[in-house]
Amino acid sequence: MPPPNPLKCNNVNSDCQLSNSYGVWGDRQTCRAPNIVYPTTEEELRRELANANKNNLKVKIVTRFSHTIPKLACPTSNSKNYVFISTEKYDSTVDINMEKLTVTADGGVGLRKLIDTIEKAGLSLVAAPYWEGVTVGGVISTGAHGSSWWGKGGAIHDHVIGISLIVPTNESEGYSKIIKLTPEDPLLNAAKVSLGLLGIISKVTFQLERAFKRSIRFNFTNDSAIEDEYMEHAKKNEFGDIQWYPSRQTAVYRYDNRVPLNTSGDGLNDFLGFQSNPILLSKSVRAIEKGFETTRNVGGKCTMASSFVAYKKLIANGFKNNKLIFTGYPVVGHQGKMQTSGSCLYSSPIDITTTCAWDPRINGLFFYESTAIIPSSKFVDFIRGVKNLRDLVKSESMCGVDLYNGFLFRFITASDAYLGQGENSVVVDFNYYRASDALTPRLNQDIWEEIEQMAFVKYGAKPHWAKNRIVAFLDVQKKYPKFNKFVAAKVQMDPKNMFSSEWSDEILFGKQESLKGDGCALEGLCICSEDRHCSPSKGYFCKPGLVYQEARVCRFSSTSTS
């Protein structure tokens, strides 16, 4: 089954509810708007915005995928004066300029369609996120990225050289207009990573290169020197990354570099986590992990983690030499087939036994995804902090993250975007179990809360705009030197705040104190300051961190009291 449409309307195009790809938002509240429209051309987009402006409606732009975890696309809870404008049917144009090595695409074009069209023309898009279930407009709006410290780097918005933006205007200008931003216009740096808050991204122009291939191999080894080797690894490998499984004391170095187009090989990136999975398997894995959570069975989680890591090593994380199976290193293939993946997006509608593992219709995998962007100079201390914590609590306590992908380290360069990273940085992703019920504590949750606060508070990490629990955005505006320039651009292009909502303001301005209440820390809606923010009735109390002692985490104790 292909993923469900994130939008469900009770009538044809009215009374609509938006969900993310997991089916549940961070605060588990619903996200609604009275109406939705589906423009198919840039002029229709402009007219729909003009109509909304003329009738004093607020607007949220939605796409066919909805893979952003925070509620950036959600209207205010009292959403009677909102309209969704969808780009699902605005995806026809992909224009390539062979002389300038550029491509200009409609905002609703899917990343896979964009890449395939570019590759057929003998060109390549250098940067892309690892997951291809995104649109052109969405992928740049939230700072999505791959991995590279070479050239313009791994963030796809840093390869953007032009954006057409539809913005509201006064009556004399027809209530909306299209503005075209070029590298000479400072507003381009605001629009590159704009969170859907400046206007409607109608077209994006990317700089391309002549087509090339990549050669990839993985080295599964001990993690003893990872803090000393990550910088050199990024400098030596154009698209390199590192996966770290702390409970297994294992680091996986990805040696990934471009090779000439005539190099033999027709490989494919079909990452295991993004493949279609049998429904029964996804449901079983979730049920087993949930059982281990309920019985506090750390050993059971470690057995699963050990099996998963061994299987990933056996199949090279899903890379295939001949588009069918992995037969050995190196895996060589065209850039367009190696840079991103997402085969579960294209499951046959006839085969109803497989889905994406997190499909909300099947009660499969359900997890948090924390992603911190840490300055490269501070990253060594972050790794040491996590290792110190591991030594203190024993490595078995970290098996929960190794059940998924451990810690994934990727590399991105300094960006001119106002809401981009200001210096060369390491992006660390880690996924971990999320309870089915908001008030159910998690096994060893204090460890992941301490690591989360270690990253975002102690080392000042910036949050990935499309991921994370709400606490990651606390005081986020203080982390961007050009934040005020973005706000000024927002005031200039959207003076009536047509594209804002309480949810996007909560994320952009980092204000979460209003969310504090009983159990709020269990779901990352707050950092605990009182026991009631955890679950004292179930033995979870608000305590200092073990290594980062300024952290405040919900820790289980069978004997502790307030």
List keywords for this structure.
562 residues, alpha+beta, Uridine Diphospho-n-acetylenolpyruvylglucosamine Reductase, domain 3, 2 domains, 8-stranded antiparallel beta sheet, 5-stranded mixed beta sheet, 13 helices, 26 strands, 24% helix, ascorbate biosynthesis, oxidoreductase
Structure notes:
The protein has 562 residues and is of the alpha+beta class. It has two domains: 1-209 and 486-510, Uridine Diphospho-n-acetylenolpyruvylglucosamine Reductase, domain 3; 213-283 and 301-377 and 400-444, no CATH class. The chain is built from 13 helices and 26 strands. The strands form seven sheets. It has an eight-stranded antiparallel sheet with strand order 19-13-15-14-22-23-21-24. The chain has a five-stranded mixed sheet with strand order 1-2-3-5-4, covered by helices on one side. Strand 9 and strand 10 form a beta hairpin. Helix 5 (226-236) runs antiparallel to helix 9 (376-393) and helix 9 (376-393) packs antiparallel against helix 11. The relative contact order is 0.13.
